[in-house]
Design brief:
The structure is a homodimer of 176-residue chains. Chain A is mainly alpha-helical. Chain A has two domains: 3-83, Orthogonal Bundle (Arc Repressor Mutant, subunit A); 96-175. Helices cover 67% and strands 10% of the residues of chain A. A two-stranded antiparallel sheet of chain A has the order 1-2. In chain A, a hairpin with a 1-residue loop joins strand 1 and strand 2 (63-71). In chain A, helix 5 runs antiparallel to helix 6 and helix 6 packs antiparallel against helix 7 (138-163). The longest helix of chain A is centred in the last third of the chain and has 26 residues, at 138-163. The model of chain A has no long low-confidence stretch (mean pLDDT 90). Chains A and B meet through helix 1, helix 2, helix 4, helix 5 and helix 6 of A and helix 1, helix 2, helix 4, helix 5 and helix 6 of B. Chain A binds a DNA duplex (30 and 30 nucleotides) through helix 3 and strand 2.
Chain lengths: 176, 176
DNA sequence: CCGCAACTATAAACACGGTGTATACCCTGA
DNA sequence: TCAGGGTATACACCGTGTTTATAGTTGCGG
């Protein structure tokens, strides 16, 4: 996920400072992965450099001075363009599992065992997520659903690949 | 995909030099995305620093001298550990689409239009991939299948989310 | 009332993956 | 002979993200 755009989006509801941004980010997007303070400030610095935001004040808070930032019109355009543009999923068609399978075959390792291991890990993860979903808030449930669907897709690919291993082996050896 | 591990895997079939590595990588994994020469050498440098590979010779070829590298025993262990370890898919449950949807709601933008746009882009991409699959080699077909399964999963999530937009809107406003 | 912990707030150094470009060497053919 | 193209590597640089340092402010226990 593009964290800088998400931050830009949060700032679009009104000028804020880094510390507040971190907390709001975590409240909305941080279910699975909170953002580090360090990343907030380095991202802010880059956005300032690129003219997407600008400092609009510096006020005392409950600690060192807060620097307040606002989205510039260039920033608003940038965000709007991002929102309006569809993503290409997995633009590179490559995955770790694909690479592992091919390399296992190339190195005379047991590719089928590898696929089976991944299958079991996926099933375990699905149970885990399904359990976590029970008590979760709506936004978190949505994120979990996304992961569940994706794991199912992975499982289908694993079955397909596992069934074709002999053919793939031949193809890999050919490339040597 | 983890390119450095893939390179390490390729080197495990015998010592090679950077240039050769680049060509073999592209032949096997490069269907969708070739690796740049620059990345080869910077990755090799890091692997040397980490003791995963070592230089074992320097011979003239059809150009400047070739530096031949071999996998160390630490490198073999590292690779074997990677092959034996299952991946956690989408360890952070976050996606661009999720972020866009939430931000659109937060900014009073049209979230449903956004989802619909993504849906149409996905369908177009599916047609494209299905078409490309027809004439492709086995390894490429496998990679394409992976992408197709994943897009289907995305589509399912889009439908689910689209149906729940009013509830999500309420939740998002709550977080402010 | 002193000192220390916990919270607020930011900055700067650093690591890593990746891209682009420069460099240098060799061979071929017009 | 010399221009062009393939071979081969090195280096500077960029963006994302992590770690660590710094500094003020509040509040609580001894």
């Amino acid at each position: 996920m593009d964290r800088s755009l998400a931050l830009l989006g949060l700032m679009s509801t009104g000028p804020t400072h880094g510390y507040d941004l971190k907390n709001r980010y975590d409240a909305i997007f941080g279910a699975a992965r909170a953002i580090a303070y360090g990343q907030i400030y380095s991202t802010l610095a880059r956005m300032i450099r690129d003219g997407l935001i600008e400092q609009v004040g510096q006020e005392p808070g409950a600690g060192p001075d807060r620097k307040r930032y606002a989205v510039t019109s260039a920033g608003r355009d940038h965000l709007a363009a991002w929102l309006r543009e569809a993503d290409t999923p997995s633009p590179d068609l490559q995955t770790n599992l694909f690479a592992k399978t091919v390399l296992a075959l190339l190195l005379d390792d047991d590719a089928d065992a590898l696929l089976d291991l991944q299958r079991r890990a996926h099933l375990a993860r699905m149970r885990e997520l399904t359990h976590a979903k029970a008590g979760a808030a709506l936004l978190d449930r949505l994120a979990i659903d996304y992961a569940l669907f994706q794991i199912e897709a992975d499982l289908r690919w694993i079955d397909l690949t596992s069934a074709r291993l002999t053919d793939i082996d031949e193809e890999v050896r050919h490339h040597g």
